[in-house]
What does this fold into?
Amino acid sequence: MSFGPNPWQQTSWDWRAAGNFIGGGAGTGLLVISALFVAPNGSAASAANGMLLLSLALIGLGLLCVWLEIGRPLRALNVFINPRTSWMSREAFVALLLFPSGLLALLNVGGLIWVTGALALLFLYCQSRMLPATKGIPAWRSRQLIPLMFSTGLCEGCGVFLLLGQWHGAVTSVVLGLFALLLVARLVLWLNYRRAVESSMAPRARAALNQAGRMLLISGTIAPLLLLAASAVLTHGTVQALLLALAGAGAAFAGANFKYTLVTRASFNQGFSLVKLPVRGVRSSQ
It folds into this structure.
């Protein structure tokens, strides 16, 4: 690696950091959608508990990825040191509340499913603020990335909800309408984000994001919307469930691919800003 005025790719965060954003986004999104649309009582109680458990597992898996990234795992406790300025510290403190609340909700403690859903939204918001706080990476520091990351997490969670729809049986027209709205909102936010970072990115970062953007457009937006339209025309239950599962899987996978690309392939810094470079054999002017 050569350090100088030309941008180079950061190596501090790798696929494990991306795993935190993928697992945390999908898990919190799934938790919120499940809290809204799966009743935690009666015949749906087992489905509600299963969705909540899966949501917590995805969030926990994401946090485990970050823990594995640390060379000395006991240093993970340092994440709690600076909640005043660090969004990572704030995410960790929210997680301390989220998991006990979720486990109590699994025991059917009244009202805690809504508290857990609110904490999930707060956790997702903290995650959405982490990358833009990194000012040295042009693809990360844009404030337009905040709503894009937030909406992507909700899209991933709603996609997983549709993927598992045959099991929990809670995919209604309201859920499908919300899913379509999230897909369109994510695409609009993506286009807004790309315009904001276009002029400041390194060529390789731009190429990586363009590739992820094509998947976000085709596999993550157009294809799911077409599958939703096809499922509205076809009335056979099994075919409908398959189409909706494919739509959900496409939306979730495209979002995960975008986050992986953003963290591991588009993370070029801006290089050093040097007004004048020394040239061997040439006297520098004072």
The two ends are 31 Å apart (CA to CA).
